[in-house]
Design goal:
alpha+beta, two-stranded antiparallel sheet, 1 helix, globular
């Protein structure tokens, strides 16, 4: 299943807002999420 990158941005932003944790894993590397919109 492929999802549009904008859709994924919304999912991740909701996760960050809910948990308050801006550290996420992207391709196995931990990064700090920055709002794109």
């Amino acid at each position: 299943m492929e999802l549009d990158p904008k859709y994924i941005d919304v999912i991740v932003q909701r996760y960050v807002d809910y948990t308050g944790n801006e550290n996420i894993k992207l391709n196995g590397k931990e990064i700090v999420w920055k709002k794109t919109v």
